[in-house]
């Protein structure tokens, strides 16, 4: 079997055979997500129409008694089937079998994450503000899969090859210390409220160092513990957060609206409202009340 896949698209693309299932999984995931959003938008646009539906027109899936079946149900079934398939062929299966199972998994995962907000809130908030959580979950999944395809490995500081090739105590101690130090940096970055930096930093370790030494986000646990008694630092954190987050919020609102079916560039009032909702100072830690003294 060839070690990689060469695509003649006018430029050289080499996909290692070991990553082919992941590439197919990501492609299936992205295509399923956008096709699903397109179908749901079409069904919503036709909700008030009294015209008879043709057999090929998309429509909601319903069971007996008018029960509406969300597509997350289909996604869960596909994820379970593909997961069991990959576990079954884990020892003796080849790349073609894993690729087929990974495509099925990508389709199921897209259907599940498209209604992630439904699972999180336990209510149908698909078109509501809380429904944006589903889009955020999809962004995270695509980012992680993309980094894996590019060759980045999570916890890449833990070099298994060094561990296996050199069994000396010194080498293994260095690997363990490096692993613990990087995990500590990741915890600090997450406590500072920098979820994306922490996520990508698990693949690109220098980002963890940058995130750990920079100011915390003002609403994060780190700011709650360290900045509430230092108003100047909290003010710097608030100003920096608002300045940095503004273009991010603008792009995020536009992209989420585009995916949700209402593409428009957000006006300043909407951006300011979102910034006011997202950016706030963490409350000071509650002081423990002294234990009541027993009467003698």
From TrEMBL:
Residue ranges crossing the lipid bilayer per the database entry: 20-40, 61-91, 103-122, 134-153, 173-191, 198-216
Top-rank taxon, per record: Bacteria
Keywords: Membrane, Transmembrane, Transmembrane helix
Listed name of the protein: Integral membrane protein
């Amino acid at each position: 079997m060839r070690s990689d896949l060469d695509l003649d698209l006018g430029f050289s693309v080499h996909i290692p055979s070991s990553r082919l299932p992941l590439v197919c999984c990501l492609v299936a995931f992205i295509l399923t997500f956008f096709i699903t959003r397109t179908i749901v938008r079409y069904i919503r646009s036709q909700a008030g129409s009294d015209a008879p539906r043709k057999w090929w027109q998309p429509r909601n899936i319903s069971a007996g008694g008018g029960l509406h079946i969300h597509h997350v149900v289909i996604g869960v079934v596909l994820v379970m089937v593909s997961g069991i398939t990959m576990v079954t062929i884990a020892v003796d299966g080849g790349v073609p079998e894993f690729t087929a199972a990974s495509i099925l998994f990508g389709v199921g995962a897209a259907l599940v994450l498209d209604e992630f907000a439904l699972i999180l809130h336990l209510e149908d908030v698909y078109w509501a503000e809380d429904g944006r959580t589903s889009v955020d979950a999809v962004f995270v999944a695509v980012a992680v899969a993309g980094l894996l395809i590019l060759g980045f490995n999570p916890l890449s500081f833990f070099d298994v090859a060094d561990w296996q090739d050199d069994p000396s105590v010194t080498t293994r101690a260095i690997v363990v210390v490096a692993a613990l130090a990087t995990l500590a940096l990741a915890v600090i970055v997450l406590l500072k409220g920098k979820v994306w930096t922490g996520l990508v930093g698990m693949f690109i370790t220098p980002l963890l160092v940058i995130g750990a030494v920079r100011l915390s986000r003002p609403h994060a646990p780190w700011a709650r513990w360290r900045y509430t008694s230092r108003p100047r630092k909290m003010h710097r954190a608030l100003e920096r957060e608002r300045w940095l987050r503004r273009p991010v919020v603008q792009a995020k609102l536009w992209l989420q609206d585009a995916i949700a079916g209402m593409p428009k560039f957000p006006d300043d009032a909407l951006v300011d409202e979102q910034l006011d909702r997202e950016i706030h100072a963490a409350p000071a830690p509650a002081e423990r009340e002294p234990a009541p003294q027993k009467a003698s």
